[in-house]
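Fill in residues.
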């Protein structure tokens, strides 16, 4: 028996916990012959074995061997969950306790501070049945008596955050990227009545909104109040200097370009703010003018295409910061954003945000980086714009009275064609809801009906290998 393997077969790791990876490696009964196989053939196992060598503190802390599947070392406890070895620092494990002594039952607020936990804390009793871990502590927080038992279920041991960014309701959730063809076939429409009163229809709508970043509500009563009702079904209104809700109508000499009858190019709203609103609603009350069609583009799809076809341009736009401003007598806002933001902590280097809003750009004439790299930046930006404006990507429709579009402001670029106000009228009522509120609503929708949430999917595109679509993964079905 090799020395490195001995701990494997000796103590706590015998039956349940080791089976998954031993089986995978054909090591179900570790033996001399198997241990002598060249290690280079099994780099993952080799790594796992290295992790396994340890000094057992179970006797010292618990006065007996640790229960099966648990390893107790000096400053942490190790478990194998789903074939994966996970270590938990005692202080952090104690910190994660959500029992009634530690967390108020009603407010769910903590009754201790992280730094109240003594660094010398350690377990004095441990139970583990493969599903739930129970720990009694030595040197617990002052005031916590011997009756205090910390219990952790499998879910919290796997992921302690309430709505982790990469879950299918988190801010780094995978999205279903779309182009014009896909939207022509897969727009999600829900009636106002169902959206407001049928929980399943609402959950389904939220699932589509989380995946595609755009949905439509129809058959809305003809009232200016409705945009607020539709918005607050998802979350509280986001107030801005435009008011809790606002109107887009043709107004002479408007201060904001959205209020005129000339065409308005692709943009995102309020990029001059520190926290631009996550979601936007536009409820059509009148649209009898010629023109005035709404145009939408999935900026994540455009960014993926750019990355695939012009990687240097993509790279340049992760560095180019553009300035945005709203500069009037009454309100002065400004901010700066890189055109493309990546999640660098993610091995897949997922795109986290696209920030693109030319009508609200501000001068960048004094920016040294922009000066130094302008030729490259200019070319990259022009390439990105040409992708955004391709007909293939643009989804166009003319909203009719009684229809409302809900879209992710920080993903779906919107624009509108010019319209003629001499004949007919155009009136949209708008509102914003913050991203935080929607992430919460996505999660509560999933809690309310997990089956429906997971079952609700966008139909895969007819042509899976469309241009720039290297893998089906880009469509991010979850
Ligand atoms: Zn507790």
């Amino acid at each position: 028996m090799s020395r490195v393997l001995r701990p494997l077969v000796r103590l706590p790791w015998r039956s349940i916990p080791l089976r998954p990876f031993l089986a995978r490696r054909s090591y179900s009964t570790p033996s001399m012959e198997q241990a002598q196989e060249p290690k280079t053939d099994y780099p993952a196992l080799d790594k796992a074995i290295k992790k396994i060598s340890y000094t057992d503190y179970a006797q010292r802390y618990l006065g007996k061997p640790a229960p099966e599947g648990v390893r107790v070392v000096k400053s942490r406890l190790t478990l194998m969950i789903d074939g994966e070895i996970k270590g938990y620092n005692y202080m952090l494990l104690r910190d994660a306790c959500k029992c009634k002594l530690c967390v108020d039952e009603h407010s769910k607020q903590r009754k201790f501070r992280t730094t109240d936990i003594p660094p010398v804390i350690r377990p004095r009793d441990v139970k583990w049945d493969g599903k739930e871990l129970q720990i009694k502590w030595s040197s617990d927080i002052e005031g916590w008596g011997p009756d205090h038992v910390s219990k952790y279920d499998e879910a919290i041991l796997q992921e302690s955050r309430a709505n982790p960014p990469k879950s299918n309701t988190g801010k780094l959730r995978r999205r279903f990227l779309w182009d014009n063809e896909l939207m022509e076939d897969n727009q999600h429409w829900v009636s106002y009545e169902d959206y407001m009163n049928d929980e399943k229809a609402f959950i389904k709508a939220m699932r589509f909104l989380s995946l595609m970043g755009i949905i439509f509500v129809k058959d809305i009563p003809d009232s200016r109040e409705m945009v607020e009702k539709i918005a607050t079904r998802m979350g509280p209104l986001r107030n801005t200097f435009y008011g809790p809700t606002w109107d887009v109508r043709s107004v002479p000499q408007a201060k904001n370009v959205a209020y005129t009858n000339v065409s308005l190019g692709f943009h995102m709203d309020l990029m001059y703010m520190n926290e631009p609103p996550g979601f936007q609603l536009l409820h059509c009350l009148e649209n009898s003018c010629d023109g005035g069609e709404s145009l939408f583009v999935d900026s994540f799809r455009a960014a993926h295409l750019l990355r695939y076809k012009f990687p240097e341009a993509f790279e340049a736009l992760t560095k180019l910061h553009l300035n945005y401003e709203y500069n009037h007598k009454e309100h002065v806002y400004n901010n700066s954003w890189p055109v493309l933001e990546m999640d660098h902590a993610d091995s897949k280097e997922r795109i986290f945000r696209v920030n693109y809003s030319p009508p609200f750009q501000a001068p960048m004439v004094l920016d040294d980086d922009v000066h130094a790299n302008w030729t490259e930046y200019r070319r990259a930006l022009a390439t990105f714009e040409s992708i955004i404006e391709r007909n293939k990507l643009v989804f166009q429709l003319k909203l009719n009275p009684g229809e409302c579009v809900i879209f992710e402001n920080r993903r779906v670029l919107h624009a509108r064609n010019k319209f003629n106000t001499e004949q007919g009228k155009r009136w949209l009522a708008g509102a914003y809801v913050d991203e935080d509120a929607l992430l919460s609503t996505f999660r509560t929708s999933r809690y309310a009906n997990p089956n429906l949430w997971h079952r609700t999917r966008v139909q895969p595109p007819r042509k899976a290998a469309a241009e720039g679509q290297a893998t089906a993964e880009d469509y991010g079905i979850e």
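Residues 374-388 form the longest helix (15 residues).
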